[in-house]
Amino acid sequence: MSRKEKNSCNSSTKQMDKRKASTRQLIGTKTITDYSLQTYGQGELVYFIIKPSNISVLSEASISARIYALMTVLKGIAEIEMLCLNSRENFEDNKRFLRERMEQEQNPVVRKLLEKDLVFLDQIQVQMATAREFLILIRLKNEKEKEVFPYLSRIEKSLKEQGFTVKRAENEDIKRLLAVYFEQNVTTERFEDFDGERWVILND
Questions:
Q1: Buried-most residue among 19, 70, 82, 95 (CB within 10 A)?
Q2: What global pTM score does this model have?
Q3: What residues make up the domain containing 102?
């Protein structure tokens, strides 16, 4: 078999494997525990949700103090990773599409309708107060089970001592984070572990 044929065969096998993969495998998620997200190859992830401060109302000295506090945390816990995600739906792609359509549209009536759609999305975005969510991420790799919670409690305590309002993400928090990240879904009150789970009636 030639090298070209081998590469083609390997590519077809990978495509077949990808089609057979479950949704969890495709997004790299094994399972969600009460306090973490277990992944394929990326370790066990624990999230700490940081309540953001409105820096527009803080003095320059207060902002400098917040920066110094974060620097202190990072110096003390080298394994920390930081994430910034949308905490609400983001309409920027839709608004960009409408602007492009308005530029291309020749019919003034249709252009007026597109303009109204754009204004409507602006109004929704203002009402929802599109915001960011700030997260501290810790990857658990070789920690023993009995050492995990003392280790996480030490990190949470360190963040609180530096003046941060912090909460360790629980099962429902993690599902919400994934829902916003993958599909911008912030309207569901409770996220299901399995599609259609809410329609199942046990012992019926």
A1: 70
A2: 0.63
A3: 91-129
